[in-house]
């Protein structure tokens, strides 16, 4: 069981796309290593040698910001939102997103780790705009992002970390946000073995702001608390 606070989500060049694809290809083999490490950790726990750090690693699908894993994931999201056609009639806009996510973790010695994450989303969306009056589905790459973070495991109960995420509008105008975004991230986690093995409470704060891109798009700045 995991306990974590969550209140909201953040908003989201060819060179960036190529770099991201290369990173995904490089990180993919780490999935097997992560699965082997998970099995080994479970076996050690069953032998009576489990600790707070090992508990946090069990059943960890990348949601714990302060306990990164080597993972390669295929994620799917279905979302609907109200919209209008060119005549002002209310309609529903549907967005299907399939995201390739890779996490790569490297121990720096002692209690420190550095973790890199990249997301490559593929989007299907049916918006209506002056450039796309038919409202048929559009397909393309969404906002690609890259994240780097530094994590310290203070002891078996406490861990803290901080990092930075860069979001790039790598797809068509009707699919991406059209803005480059930067997101500083800080988080802290405490294990709660008193509740059950593997339980923890984590707080993560992100400040998302756009700084470049299409000048016609709205510039935004948002502070969010919750998962990454």
Radius of gyration: 20 Å
Please count the beta strands (DSSP E, at least 2 residues each). Answer: 10
Elements, N to C (H/E) = EHHHEEEEEEEEE
What structural category do the secondary elements indicate?
A: alpha+beta
What would your notes on this structure say?
The chain has one domain. It is 18% helix and 48% strand. The protein has three helices and ten strands; from the N terminus they run E-H-H-H-E-E-E-E-E-E-E-E-E. Strands 1, 2, 3, 4, 5, 6, 7, 8, 9 and 10 form a ten-stranded mixed sheet that branches. A hairpin with a 4-residue loop joins strand 6 and strand 7.
Question: Quick recap of the structure?
Answer:
The protein has 228 residues and is an alpha+beta fold. It has one domain (3-225). The chain has helices spanning 14-27, 30-49, 52-57, and strands at residues 3-4, 71-84, 90-109, 112-125, 138-141, 143-153, 158-169, 179-191, 200-213, 221-225.
What are the defining features of this structure?
single chain, 228 residues, alpha+beta, 10-stranded mixed β-sheet, 3 helices, elongated, disordered N terminus
């Amino acid at each position: 069981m995991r306990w974590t606070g969550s209140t909201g989500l953040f908003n989201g060049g060819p060179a960036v796309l190529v770099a991201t694809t290369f990173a995904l290809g490089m990180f993919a083999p780490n999935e097997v290593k992560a699965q082997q490490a998970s099995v080994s950790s479970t076996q050690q726990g069953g032998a009576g040698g489990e600790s707070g750090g090992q508990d946090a690693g069990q059943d960890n699908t990348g949601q714990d910001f302060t306990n990164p894993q080597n993972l390669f994931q295929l994620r799917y999201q279905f979302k609907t939102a109200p919209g209008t056609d060119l005549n002002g009639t209310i309609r529903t806009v549907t967005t299907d997103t399939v995201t390739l996510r890779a996490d790569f973790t490297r121990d720096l010695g002692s209690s420190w780790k550095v973790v890199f994450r990249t997301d490559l989303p593929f989007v299907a969306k049916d918006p209506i705009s002056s450039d796309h009056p038919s409202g048929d589905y559009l397909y393309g790459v969404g906002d690609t992002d890259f994240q780097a973070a530094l994590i310290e495991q203070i002891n078996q109960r406490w861990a803290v970390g901080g990092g930075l995420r860069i979001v790039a509008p790598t797809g068509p105008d009707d699919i991406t946000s059209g803005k480059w975004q930067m997101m500083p991230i800080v988080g802290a986690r405490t294990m709660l073995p008193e509740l059950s093995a593997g339980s923890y409470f984590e707080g993560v704060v992100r400040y998302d702001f756009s700084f470049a891109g299409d000048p016609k798009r709205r510039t935004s700045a948002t502070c969010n608390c919750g998962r990454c």
